[in-house]
Structure formats: C-alpha cells, structure tokens
TrEMBL record:
GO molecular function terms attached to this record: 4 iron, 4 sulfur cluster binding; deaminated base DNA N-glycosylase activity; metal ion binding; nucleotidyltransferase activity
Keyword Metal-binding belongs to the record: yes
UniProt keyword terms in alphabetical order: 4Fe-4S, DNA damage, DNA repair, Hydrolase, Iron, Iron-sulfur, Metal-binding, Nucleotidyltransferase, Transferase
Residues in Uracil-DNA glycosylase-like domain copies: 43-216
SUPFAM superfamilies, per database record: Uracil-DNA glycosylase-like (SSF52141)
Pfam families xrefs: UDG (PF03167)
Gene source species: Actinopolymorpha pittospori
InterPro entries: UDG_Type-4/5, Ura-DNA_glyco_family4, Uracil-DNA_glycosylase-like, Uracil-DNA_glycosylase-like_sf
GO biological process: DNA repair
Family from the record: Belongs to the uracil-DNA glycosylase (UDG) superfamily. Type 4 (UDGa) family.
Name the UniProt record assigns to this protein: Type-4 uracil-DNA glycosylase
Length: 223
C-alpha cells in the first residue's frame, strides 16, 4: 500500500497570495506537528513593500503568546542593531523560517525552553517563506542565525564561514516547495547571527558589534 505524502505548508496556501490572505491561511496550518503545542501561528509582519526581508529561526516564548515576530528580548536587540546599522525597521518585513514555537517544558515551573526546529519542520514550513517573498518582492534577504541560513541555502551552509557578505541566491533551494503563490528570488542574501546569540554570548558587546557590522553591509547595499 502506497504511503500518503507528508503534509507541508503547501497544502494550506490560499488561492489569493497577498500578505493578508497568507496570514489568515497560516493561522490554520497543520503542515507539521508543531501546531499541536504552540499557542498560535506567528506569521511575518512589516512593510508589504519592504526592500529588505529579515528571516529568523522561529518565534520564541513571547512571540508565541503575542502572535507577532521579534517582539521579545531578541527583538529588542534586533531593533537596536538595525537602528545602529542605519536600517529603519518600519520599512522592513520580519518573519521566521518556522512559524510555530518549538519548545520543551522546563523541569520546574511554567517556563518553556526553546528547541531548535528539525530539517523536516523547516522544509514543511518553507512554502510560507517562499510565498512571503513572492508577495513582498524584496531586493535583499537577511538570514538571522544558522537555522534561517540553512533554511535558505540548504543544510550544508556554514554561517561562521560566510556571514556578513552579500551572497547570490540559491534559487533551487530557496524556491523548493513553492506552490501557486508564484515566486520571487531576492537579488542578494546576507547571513548573520541571530540577535538571541548576543544575549547568550560571553562577550555581549563584541557579539552585538559583529551583528551591527553585518547589518551595515545590508544597509549599504540598499543605499
């Protein structure tokens, strides 16, 4: 007996492909099992005509509860770093490679601990990112962290070796899983650390300076 193909976000993409329709449809996505425990889908947000899209790994605890991307502690770091790099967040669009919060309960208390999404979950969710790019049509994509970078470039990508420089888009990997939403490939992609890495760093000042330096490369490419 033939096995049924695994479900992905492509099964939940709407006929309309504007951001409003995509956001509404994503609210009922069951393309992977993460929806079972997450509070809600956390879709992207920002300028629908942004020249730059920033994509992170997944929503965190605060984002999961509020339903908005980058509104927790890491979002505060990102806001400050973009301002210091000369990027106006109001004119950007921010999202995540995975739209549901993956976590494990802490041994004590109600705190939920972040758990890195697996490759299956990243691939299952990728049609949403592809659809967002097709709707926004940015010139530049900024990948925040290793998970987001691998979601775009593939699992062999090494952030430590290729961060902070403008890279050509890997069309085949980026558009894999694309469905009826159309397609758009940014002119360039830049990978840097996730702002949460600054919060975990032993030397936060050094880590923050590196994030700002990378984002300045992005800002200069848009000037």
């Amino acid at each position: 007996m033939a096995r049924k193909p695994a479900r992905t976000a492509a099964d939940f993409l709407p006929e309309r492909t504007d951001l409003t329709a995509l956001r509404e449809a994503a609210g009922s996505c069951q393309g992977c099992d993460l929806y079972r425990d997450a509070t809600q889908t956390v879709f992207g947000a920002g300028d629908p005509n942004a020249r730059v899209v920033l994509v992170g790994e997944q929503p965190g605890d605060v984002e999961d509860r509020r339903g908005e991307p980058f509104v927790g502690p890491a979002g505060g770091v990102l806001d400050r770093a973009m301002a210091d790099a000369g990027i106006d967040r109001v004119g950007t669009y921010v999202t995540n490679a995975v739209k549901h919060f993956k976590f494990v309960p802490a041994e004590r208390g109600k705190r939920r601990l972040h758990k890195t999404p697996g490759r299956t979950e990243i691939v299952a969710c990728r049609p949403w990112l592809s659809a967002e790019l097709a709707a926004v049509r940015p010139e530049l994509l900024v990948c925040l962290g290793a998970t987001a970078s691998k979601a775009v470039f593939g699992p062999a990508f090494k952030l430590t070796e290729r961060r902070g420089v403008l890279l050509p888009p890997p069309e085949e990997e980026l558009m894999a899983g694309q469905s009826e939403a159309g397609e758009h490939v940014p002119s360039a992609i830049l990978a840097t650390i996730h702002p949460s890495a600054v919060l975990r760093a032993l030397d936060r000042d050094e880590a923050y300076a590196g994030l700002v330096a990378d984002l300045r490369v992005a800002a200069e490419s848009l000037s």
